[in-house]
UniProtKB/TrEMBL annotation:
Membrane topology: Single-pass type II membrane protein
Cleavable signal peptide: none
InterPro entries linked: FucosylTrfase_pln, GDP-Fuc_O-FucTrfase
Record field: transmembrane: 54-73
Family in the record: Belongs to the glycosyltransferase GT106 family.
Gene Ontology terms: biological process: fucose metabolic process
Protein name per UniProt: O-fucosyltransferase family protein
Pathway this chain belongs to: Glycan metabolism
Any one Gene Ontology molecular-function term assigned to this protein's record: glycosyltransferase activity
Keyword tags: Carbohydrate metabolism, Fucose metabolism, Glycoprotein, Glycosyltransferase, Membrane, Signal-anchor, Transferase, Transmembrane, Transmembrane helix
Length: 469
């Protein structure tokens, strides 16, 4: 019986079907390659789909967590702040008010700076500090806005808010018990004097550390101020080490303190008139000699020259004068210049055109001095005013840079005895060095006087709670 042969085409089709059924394992033809390629593409597509779903899920969870965080923040109202005083007095106040706003869960409006003080500086916050950095760097701590929302701004314009000066050296509980109820009632509260309104001691550690974060990270000067300050430091560094002398012998300081050592009768009269002209300077009749002996006066340029020499400061070191106009001008600087001939100021280092933008803006000029003071090899203030104390604290934070804190009460006694002849130069110099051996900005715990908070060591001069972080 003859078996009928199938056509060749049909035979090939059957063979292909068998190969397909076997998964293509018996051969390595074009069909097998195509299937493998298809499987690879399918696998890659599944992987991309899986990754896309994973990333999308992650992003959705992040959004949910952010919404939950925002929802958890309870905004109790808005806090407006008007700072008073000079640059560093306002700086401390800003740090305090950020801490208060965070503790009370209120929105802080960018603080308003003092324009009515002796210096009459018209600068706004953003003219001195980098306002965007201020808001951005603290956004995880406290909500800060440049201005009130329109609805609340209209309320303030209509007078529907509360304005008051908080009590000085208050514990944080004062703000919780006295200020927070006012914020909840009026929605907007304006604190119109904010200097030294938060206690130095006895505050929660997180409040102290927040004050430091604001001071050392949040309050950055504008790029223009930072760049010019860096330029001054570079110019000084090219010539070697330098000492910054915060010579607080300016007209306003002398009038305010009533210290007239070395002044002639006309100058004494001028300073007295100024003291009476400012009604908020409460002390009018002042015994200059008594205050000087108590160490309550800034050292004169002549006294300063004597002390620096006794401390064996190198005669050839550059001394940068961080101050405004010295009262009495060049006449009062003669002794200091004779002992230390390398006296410089920002006005002698920089081109007048570079300083032109800052002229008549005392806080911006003070900001330049602040930056140079931070970078100096030695910082010597002749009076423990706000700049002296805040710079001292900042230098501690930067690694305990050498800051000579002069003991003026002891120094005045030693200076007078030297002039009277009861101490020779060697005895005088040795005693000055002994007195200041432990007053060089080294690590130390802050002095606490619980019943006299104004006499305590200032928090911003020695923020020791923050120095281990």
């Amino acid at each position: 019986m003859k078996v009928e042969e199938k056509p060749a085409v049909e035979n090939r089709e059957e063979e292909q079907l068998k190969l397909n059924e076997m998964g293509g394992c018996a051969g390595g033809g074009d069909g097998s390659k195509g299937d493998k390629s298809s499987l690879t593409v399918l696998s890659q597509a599944k992987m991309i789909l899986w990754m896309t779903r994973g990333v999308t899920t992650l992003l959705l969870w992040i959004c949910v967590l952010q919404l939950l965080t925002v929802g958890a923040y309870k905004n109790n109202g808005y806090l407006m702040v008007s700072c008073n005083g000079g640059l560093n007095q306002m700086r401390g106040a800003i740090c305090d008010m950020v801490a208060v706003a965070r503790y009370l869960n209120v929105t802080l409006i960018v603080p308003e700076l003092d324009k009515s003080s002796f210096w009459a500086d018209p600068s706004d916050f953003e003219d001195i500090f980098d306002v965007d950095h201020f808001i951005r760097s603290l956004r995880d701590e406290v909500r800060i806005l440049k201005e009130l929302p329109p609805r609340l701004k209209r309320r303030v314009e209509l007078g529907n808010f509360r304005s008051l000066a908080p009590i000085s050296w208050s514990d944080i509980s004062y703000y919780h018990n006295q200020i927070l109820p006012l914020i909840r009632r009026y929605k907007v509260v304006h604190l119109n004097r904010t200097d030294a309104r938060l206690a130095n001691n006895g505050l929660p550690l997180e409040i102290q550390k927040l004050r430091c974060r604001v001071n050392f990270s949040g309050l950055k000067f504008t790029p223009q101020i930072e760049e010019l300050g860096e330029k001054v430091v570079k110019i000084l560094r090219k010539k070697g080490p330098f000492l910054v002398l915060h010579l607080r012998y300016e007209m306003d300081m002398l009038a305010f303190s009533g210290c007239t050592q070395g002044c002639n009768s006309e100058e004494v009269e001028e300073l007295t008139r100024m003291r009476y002209a400012y009604t908020w300077w409460k002390e009018k009749e002042i015994n200059s000699d008594f205050k000087r002996k108590e160490g309550l006066c800034p050292l004169t340029p002549e006294e300063t020259a004597l002390v620096l020499r006794a401390l064996r400061i190198d005669r050839d070191i550059q001394i940068y004068i961080a101050a405004g106009e010295i009262y009495g001008g060049e006449r009062r600087m003669t002794s200091l210049a004779a002992e230390f001939p390398n006296l410089v100021r920002k006005e002698t280092i920089l081109d007048p055109l570079e300083l032109g933008f800052f002229q008549n803006h005392s806080s911006q000029m003070a900001a330049l001095d602040y930056l140079v003071s931070l970078e100096s090899d030695i910082f010597v203030p002749t009076y423990d005013g706000n700049m002296a104390r805040v710079v001292e604290g900042h230098r501690r934070y930067l690694g305990f840079k050498k800051t000579i804190r002069l003991d003026r009460k002891v120094l005045i006694d030693l200076i007078d005895r030297y002039h009277e002849g009861s101490l020779n130069w060697e005895e005088f110099s040795n005693r000055v060095q002994e007195v200041h051996a432990d007053r060089m900005g080294r690590p130390m715990q802050r002095v606490v006087i619980s019943d006299r908070p104004k006499e305590e060591e200032y928090f911003y001069a020695n923020p020791y709670e923050c120095l281990d972080s």
